[in-house]
Amino acid sequence: MTWWNDLLETGGEIVGGAIDVAGDLGSEWINAKVDNEADRVSSANPDENRANENNYQQPNGDTVQTGTGAGGFNISKDMAIAAGVAVAICGVLYVVTKKGSK
User: Fold this and answer.
1) Amino acid 90: pLDDT
2) Are 63 and 56 in contact (CB under 8 A)?
3) What is the domain range of residue 40?
4) Distance in angstroms (rounded) separating the CA atoms of residues 65 and 56
């Protein structure tokens, strides 16, 4: 009968260990699912994903564009540099042609 008790005890330990391992895997899986869901919910928060811009809105819901010049014309930094270089070249050409005409 001792071998039967040993067999039951060993079998019980094996089954108990398997149940413990399955329980641990299950709890890890559930924790991973809950963490992923929490990350998904927090990343879907519009207050965190929307830029904090105080854009004024027109009655139809469109944003009012600010920072543009007269008539909605907006000059970029590169355009300003190119215009400055063009004015400088024109100035140099004017001085050179005036010296050559004397």
Assistant:
1) 95
2) yes
3) 1-48
4) 8
In a domain, 86, yes or no: no
Phi, psi of 37 (to 5 degrees): -65, -40
Contact 48, 42 (CB under 8 A): yes
Per-residue model confidence (pLDDT) at position 55: 67
Averages of pLDDT over each 10 residues, the chain, 102 residues: 70 73 75 82 69 71 67 77 95 86 60
Residue 94 within a domain? no
DSSP string spanning 30-97?
HHHHHHHHHHHHHHT-HHHHS------B-TTSPBPP-S--GGG----HHHHHHHHHHHHHHHHHHHHH
Let me know if residue 28 belongs to a domain: yes
Q: How far apart are CA 55 and CA 70, in angstroms?
A: 19
CB-count exposure of residue 89 (10 Å: 0-12, 13-18, 19+): exposed
CA 14 from centroid of its chain's CA atoms: 49
Q: What is the tally of structural domains in the chain?
A: 1
